[in-house]
Amino acid sequence: MTFDLMIKNAKLVSEDSIDSVNLYIAGEKIAAVTSVNCIYDAAQVIDAEGHYVFPGCIDTHSHLGDFDGEEEQQQFSTAAAAIGGFTTCIDMPTNNPVVSTPERFQKKLKGLEKISYVDFGMYGALIKDNQDQLAAIDAAGALCFKSFLSPSGGGFTSPNMYEAREALKRIGQAGNMAAFHCEDYFIIDRCFTHMVENHLITRQDSLDARPLSAELLATRDMVELARETKTPIHICHVSHPEVAAIIEQAQQEGIDITGETCAHYLTFSQEDFLAKGPRWKCAPPLREPAAREGLWEYVQKGVLSCVCSDHSPSSKECKDDSVQPTYDTPNGISGIQTCVTAFYNEAVNKRGLSPTLLAREMSANPARRFGLYGRKGALKPGFDADLILFDPDLTYTITAEELKYKHKLSAFVGYEGKGRPVLTLLRGHVIAKDGELTSKDSIGKALLKHSL
């Protein structure tokens, strides 16, 4: 037998080991994993000597762009994902319009199928008044449902606790999962109103308007609803170890709950936002340096089982608080191209942790939680041949020019480190190399719940 592709001399990083192997690919799948001395014929050979080979990473939380007039944004975002080492992105619903009906879900799905450079799944929206649409959105293929418990603007309305409870019952009946942006609605709403009414325009004022108490209260509320309804829940972008501690306690009590955090919470702190500005503005906000370090403990323990980008692009003008109050600048950090790179540098180079942590937190765990494992999340026979070649010795300083975003603006510009992806394969096809796409053709496929 002649295989399509051989990755030889691979230092394969899985969630629990690093092994020297040869990988063989046939028909877009991993066909065999052998010792380095076991040589078979292959039509093409890639020598991975000196590189780690990671399973393709899965971004569990990425705002790829609205689907009315924003196809260009989606294309830029998925190109950046491919270069950065993500081979699968799970797209978060946004406001134009909110993906709160099966028709809107299908429209966005068809748009992404035309332009995505990586495979993708989709969330459906859980809003105040779409409980009767949830079963149909599930049937359309949503991998999860997303809800904001704090004001988010536009049509993405926030359910109250009764509405969230009823929605969780329906989502559980469908065998699906719900994810929550956990900040208490009334605290955030009244703090923001107070800030605007009193013309509190500084960066510190914006931080004060999103207190940790709001995140703690909302997380506790969702734990109790998950306990009652028995529906799996996922807590988005955990910003503080005290929130992670609530999740850990719930897990120990047998509640089906997982949590994620983001590369920016593990890299930066509120000091960056206060000194440098709204490129570091997100919701929940960056916390104090000690909280950043505390989050790492919960990542290592697996309580926070996914590390994502929460990629939220904005223009330079929108992020400028020299011409507008800080509260008028949008929340969100652009990071889909740099998430894998920064996490590796922070974990391995700065904290001395094993590269296996990246494979666990950004491949295996996300695949398991979102129903993709067996197809994604590992490099085993029968899995999709999604992988990245990673040069652990490559030093870099991230520049705006290298970013493939429509708006070349990111908190990660200027970040320095060592180790980054240099080659990305999606289902056995090389889609990115040395910071560039290898083809203008987009081959990303939809990952729908009913087809997995």
Could you explain the architecture of this structure?
By secondary structure, the chain is of the alpha/beta class. The mean pLDDT is 96. Helix 2 packs parallel to helix 3, helix 4 packs across helix 7 and helix 8 packs parallel to helix 11 (289-301). Helix content is 33%, strand content 24%. The two termini are 28 Å apart. Strands 1, 2, 3, 4, 5, 14, 15, 16 and 17 form a 9-stranded mixed sheet that branches. It is globular, with a radius of gyration of 21 Å. It has 13 helices and 17 strands. Strand 11, helix 8 (241-252) and strand 12 (257-262) form a beta-alpha-beta unit. It has helices at residues 71-84, 102-115, 134-140, 161-173, 185-197, 203-208, 212-229, 241-252, 263-267, 270-276, 289-301, 339-350, 356-369, and strands at residues 3-13, 18-26, 29-34, 42-47, 52-55, 57-62, 86-91, 119-125, 144-148, 178-181, 233-235, 257-262, 304-308, 387-397, 416-426, 429-433, 436-437. 55% of the residues are buried.
